[in-house]
């Protein structure tokens, strides 16, 4: 089975003096449902090169959770690991699928300034995308309304916030929702991941 490296959020347990890497088990299930072996990536930049070399990933998934440090988040080690994953994926043309915070990192990395968006936490949006209309969940407070090339818009919410986008030349795709939080997993999310993996 082909390996997909999956980034992790950082949970801070101040009372224990711990910084924990964490991942929703449902995200691992969602990745595995696409014939990929999900491997969580520790938020330790010094471990990344060896992990990549040993596993030779077929895909990278940037997960949700945590704001970017540049926008007030408290997990700069995660930012560093995800930016390194993105850089390696770009160089080696490895498909990269980013969701929610992961999509925000992609937007920022390609020169798109994020802004606070209201009405996008704990709600749902209807989107016209690809082969029809779909409803998606929403748990983000940062977003964009315009894009810098080579990123291109796939879908917007009713208020004009970009909810999905892709790279014009490379297998990179970002969505602002959480595929793993849908039960059952949806046709749209499979369609988009397969597009990113060049399997459609």
Which whole number gives the mean pLDDT?
A: 96
Percent of residues in helices? 25-40%
Strand order of the largest sheet: 4-1-5-6-13-12-11
Number of strands: 13
Low-confidence stretches: none
Indicate the structural class: alpha/beta
Task: Please give the alpha-carbon distance between the first and last residues.
Answer: 19 Å
| Largest beta-sheet characterization | 7 strands, mixed
Taken in chain order, the helices and strands follow as EEEHEHEHEHEEEEEEEH
Shape: globular
Task: Give the helix/strand layout.
Elements: E1 2-6, E2 9-13, E3 18-22, H1 25-32, E4 36-40, H2 48-55, E5 59-62, H3 76-92, E6 96-99, H4 101-109, E7 115-116, E8 121-129, E9 132-139, E10 142-143, E11 151-156, E12 162-167, E13 172-175, H5 187-196
Parallel strand pairs: 1-4, 1-5, 5-6, 6-13
Antiparallel strand pairs: 2-3, 7-10, 8-9, 11-12, 12-13
Helix pairs in contact: 3-4
Please supply descriptive tags for the structure shown above.
seven-stranded mixed β-sheet, alpha/beta, 5 helices, 200 residues, two-stranded antiparallel ribbon, single chain
What does this protein structure show overall?
26% of the residues lie in helices and 32% in strands. The protein has 5 helices and 13 strands. The chain has a 7-stranded mixed beta sheet with strand order 4-1-5-6-13-12-11, with helices on both faces. β2 and β3 form a beta hairpin.
